[in-house]
């Protein structure tokens, strides 16, 4: 026999209601997440190209030299790793900037709410 389920009205510990979000804050969150998703898509596309497309055309790049080495060797041995590290660093820098913009919007929203309460 299954245990009876308490209805939401009878729950002794109901979940608190989420705070109301202003339209400006909702817009700031949408912009933040849209930027985040676009950034991830662009960086992953660059990573895909470096990982899969460049090796597919490496035989055509055999005559090109970089630092005394043939370009396909350099990309396979060093270049791809440097690109991945650069992508991670770029993501960190751009997301820190986006975090600061979102924090500024949150601070402005709190200031407006406090001014309205006075």
Task: Summarize the structure in words.
InterPro entries: Na_symporter_ssu. Keywords: Membrane, Transmembrane, Transmembrane helix. Residues 30-101 form the Sodium symporter small subunit domain. With 118 residues, the protein is mainly α. The chain has one domain (22-117). Helix content is 69%, strand content 3%. It has two helices and two strands; from the N terminus they run αββα. It has helices at residues 23-56, 71-117, and strands at 65-66, 69-70. Strands 1-2 form a two-stranded antiparallel ribbon. Strand 1 and strand 2 (69-70) form a beta hairpin. Helix 1 (23-56) packs antiparallel against helix 2. It starts with 22 loop residues before the first helix and ends with a helix. The model has no long low-confidence stretch (mean pLDDT 85).
**Proportion of helical residues:** 55-70%
Averaged pLDDT, please?
Answer: 85
Biggest sheet descriptor: 2 strands, antiparallel
3D shape: elongated
Biggest sheet: strands side by side, in what order?
A: 1-2
Helix-strand pattern, N to C? HEEH
Rounded to the nearest angstrom, the radius of gyration is: 25 Å
Q: Tell me the number of structural domains.
A: 1
Q: Given the helix and strand composition, which structural class is it? A: mainly alpha
Q: How many strand units?
A: 2
Low-confidence stretches: none
Q: Treating each run of at least 4 consecutive H or I residues as one helix, how many helices? A: 2
Beta-strand content: under 5%
Distance between the termini: 57 Å
């Amino acid at each position: 026999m299954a245990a009876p389920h308490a209805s939401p009205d009878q729950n002794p510990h109901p979940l608190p209601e989420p705070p109301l979000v202003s339209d400006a804050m909702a817009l700031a969150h949408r912009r933040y997440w849209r930027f985040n998703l676009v950034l991830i898509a662009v960086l992953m596309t660059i990573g895909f190209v470096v990982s899969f497309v460049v090796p597919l055309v490496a035989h055509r790049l055999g005559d090109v030299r970089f630092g005394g080495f043939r370009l396909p060797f350099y990309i396979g041995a060093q270049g791809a790793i440097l690109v991945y590290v650069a992508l991670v660093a770029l993501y960190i820098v751009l997301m820190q900037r986006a975090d600061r913009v979102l924090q500024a919007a949150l601070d402005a929203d709190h200031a407006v709410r406090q001014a309205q309460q006075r």
